[in-house]
Design brief:
By secondary structure, the protein is an alpha+beta fold. It is built from nine helices and eight strands. Strands 5-6-8-7 form a four-stranded antiparallel sheet, sandwiched between helices. Strand 2 and strand 3 form a beta hairpin. The longest helix is centred in the middle third of the chain and has 23 residues.
Length: 277
């Protein structure tokens, strides 16, 4: 029996499912909607979501998770613009712990991030143990110290030569017992996905963006940390410490905590460079 079908008693032949299905499973050659190549379905849920009369039957989807869409949008263009512009990276945190329910909210919203071909293939590692966060910071700083020596000992081109200043400062702070990798954040969230899937890096970054935006609404500060990922890629022992699954690559990292300082102004940005065609 087919997993995807149309309830003929309800269908009003509006063709919404036909037009919105990304992989063209639905078609209407005559006077009724039909289904073909359902094995190619990416389970995005467009068909169920768009049908105004609930005529689409899809056994591959958990329909209990489909909620009524509210009318209109929650933001005006002006309020959304203000919200997006006001978000700042946080590099100075209070020492208090982040409640588990807040972290769970971040993970929950992250799973709604768009993913290529609806793969939803990212997973999360939440590091909230203080000793583990400190250990990871020390491992990364040690790696950067070794990498710095390697770069400075050679005149050959190196992909990270432009980051020499950052590596040096990271290692100097580490030598003084300070954390410049995570900046004292009480929580580090890492996102990983299969390394052999081309869209994995985009998927992970979209999920990170969802988390940092949700964090703003909860009064949390965040910082997207690309440099730690350089250490993860270069030092296999760090990935082992994080217990990342075999075949997965850690592609997203964000620090989380309560910000110590409040930003009182929105900074300017360079004018956009645009070519209109």
């Amino acid at each position: 029996m087919s997993d995807i079908s149309i309830d003929r008693r309800k269908c009003i032949l509006c063709e919404a499912c036909v037009e919105t299905c990304p992989v063209h499973i639905f078609f209407m050659p005559n006077s009724e909607v039909q289904v073909r190549h359902e094995e190619e379905c990416m389970t995005c849920g467009h068909c169920v979501s768009v049908c105004p009369v609930e005529a689409v039957i899809h056994k591959g989807l958990d329909l209990s998770g489909f909620l009524p869409a509210p009318e209109g949008t929650a933001f005006s263009p002006e309020s959304l613009y203000s919200f997006l512009r006001s978000r700042r990276s946080c590099r100075v945190y209070e020492t208090r712990e982040v409640p588990a329910e807040m972290l769970e909210k971040l993970i929950d919203i992250a799973r709604y991030a768009p993913t290529g071909f609806n793969r939803q293939n990212f997973e999360f590692i939440v590091v909230q143990d203080k000793a583990r966060v400190e250990k990871l910071s020390k491992m990364a700083a040690t790696y950067f110290g070794d990498l710095l020596k390697e770069i400075e000992a050679s005149q050959e081109p190196h992909p990270f030569r432009r980051m020499v200043y950052e590596f040096r400062r990271d290692y100097e702070f580490f030598s003084q017992g300070k954390d410049r990798i995570f900046r004292g954040a009480p929580v580090v969230i890492l996102v990983h996905a299969p390394a052999d899937i081309g869209t994995s890096i985009d998927n992970c970054l979209y999920s990170v963006f969802h988390m940092v935006m949700m964090a703003e609404t909860l009064g949390l500060g965040t910082c997207i940390n690309r440099r730690f990922l350089v250490a993860v890629d270069g030092a296999p022992e760090i990935a082992r410490e994080l217990e990342a699954p075999a075949g997965h690559r850690i592609l997203g990292c964000v620090t989380v905590g309560f910000p110590k300082h409040k930003f009182n102004k929105w900074p300017s940005r360079k004018p956009p460079k645009v070519k209109w065609l």
